[in-house]
Amino acid sequence: MIFGIVGLGLIGGSLARSIKFHSSNTVLGADLNETVLLQARMFSAIDDELTPDRIPECDVVLVALYPQDAVDYILKHIDSFKPGALVIDCCGVKRFVCERLFPAFKGKSSTFIGGHPMAGREYSGFSYAQDDLFENASMILAPAPGTEIETIRTAKEIFLSIGFGRVRFTTPEEHDEMIAFTSQLAHIVSCAYVNSPLSGKHKGFSAGSFKDMTRVARLNETMWTELFLENGDHLVEETDHLIENLTALRDAIEGKDAERLKEILAESRRLKESLEE
Q: What is the pTM of this model?
């Protein structure tokens, strides 16, 4: 099988390395940065460059670009994909991508499926790519209505074969609602927390909690601005819930209401424990 990977940053580079680690498949890679292409070759993450004329060779094309760039790339090359090929994006939002690409693939001999590998690091770029980044991680797939069951099964088997622990199928709408809570809100909290006036004075007064809470504030502001705005409705709703919860805690502390504070903290503990069961 021949994989084409477009964008060799953290996610695309890790996908390439995972494929090469877990299989003998051929990987062709594309990136605007020539240095990144050279690095990918040096680490044996790719076998060769994915040039436009080689797109028709690929059985699977994984597009690991920012959402608008992913849409633009796929639409530009939509008539070059191999008949029967799977084209899967790796973006952190699905409605924006799928609403533009599902209609475009109607009647095409290749198939587009929305995708989101649920793993990452606070660093970006191929230099931080790992062959085990997706070990036991979830791969979220959002196929278009009417996608053949056999095609969906093939997509699932592909990702399980390169190290993912599970594959979950969803709709673009459900994905974006859930990701606002499980991922995007965590980045909002981390950024808001680290922006405290006391942030620069924390050294010597912090332990694991500060590190855990601020880890994802080390983000790519260009990409996350796009992701936040493209999922703004769900993210604003989750941010409002967070503000309500913070306000309840603040009011209990300010009012020295020990019973109310203990009640909120106990409920939070019980909920966290139930999530881990």
A: 0.91
